[in-house]
Design brief:
alpha+beta, Naphthalene 1,2-dioxygenase Alpha Subunit, Chain A, domain 1, Rieske Iron-sulfur Protein, 7-stranded antiparallel β-sheet, 4-stranded antiparallel β-sheet, 11 helices, 17 strands, globular
Amino acid sequence: MVPIDRELLSLSLNSEGQMSLPAEAYTDISVLEWEMEHFFDESWVCVGRSEDLRGAGDRCAVALGHESALLTRDEEGDLRAFYNVCRHRGHVLAEVGEAASGRFIRCPYHAWAYGLDGRLQGAPGFGQLAGFDRADYSLVPVPVVEWEGWLFVNASEDAPPFEEHVGNLGERIGNHRSGELVTAARRCYEIEANWKILVENYHECYHCASIHPELCKVSPPKSGEDHEARGIWFGGSMELEDHAETMSLTGESFAPMLPHLTDLQKREVYYYQLFPNLLISLHPDYVMTHRLRPIAPDRTAVECEWLFSKKAVESEGFDPSYASEFWDTTNGQDWGACEGVQRGASSRGYRQGPLSPDESTSGKFVATVARGYLEGRVTQIPDWTPPDRASKQVR
């Protein structure tokens, strides 16, 4: 069980008078180690985009929780994933983040070679060895799923089916056709804050009037609505100001609107988290994601991507910076606030604080994490209604 007092965790579960998580959730290395096993390795972790593995032979090594996996695109175009471990002496096949292409996966230690389907093709010095059968030494597969253009891997092999995990989120984001979009910009950050602090911040706009002047010019900070989730996801919508076409510094869009949106979807922005590590922000003209990777209790790597239609990206003079610069500014404001929370959570003066009705989605996330600590695994949150605001939520 996670090393946090059960009585303190119970305060984070209450639908009335709900409190934030105990300090250990943000500062204790043993808690993070537990999360990496139970929240990441035993869940469906987003590891990138399908477009990063376009052609036969493309492969890359990705981090999960404690584990890493090697993803490949085989000669039939199918996606495969394997533990990133050679079957000879256990050397990793590639360092996390390393990408390559070719017909064979070759271990850098003793040059054992595997096909794109994971079957052992070559083992120097073992060819005439009595009793040695290459068929016994294939790479060990792990479950992998492509969904809406994103890739998800489960290292434990015993997570609930991905369809249960994602629930009805596909119904919410389907019109944006994220799987048809292409990455036009990417920025990487390293923030000195716990990954859950970043998620809690993402889920509320209670702070927006205080630190986000640019955002408040294009989206009313109290305009949000929380969406009912089936599955392990959280989020809702916010409106655009009348003059704004999208989230940019001026509110102006410099790309075609996504073609399949309803009239309402053209006037709203949607903010969702698919547990544990994918944040999806859907705009009328682009989709932005944050992909989180915990490094330490007080440090998180974040990869942001901005996805646009092929029509936009291929148009003459297209520049995605109107979107990326707006969110780089907003992200920077958020990162500073999150790092301040991290420093406070590390103080002996930290006590659990009350969550506002304007933080209802953050509250759902906090309650889900607290219940996961107690039960050993995150599951869909039961019916849970924060006081005074049954249906409204900001970001």
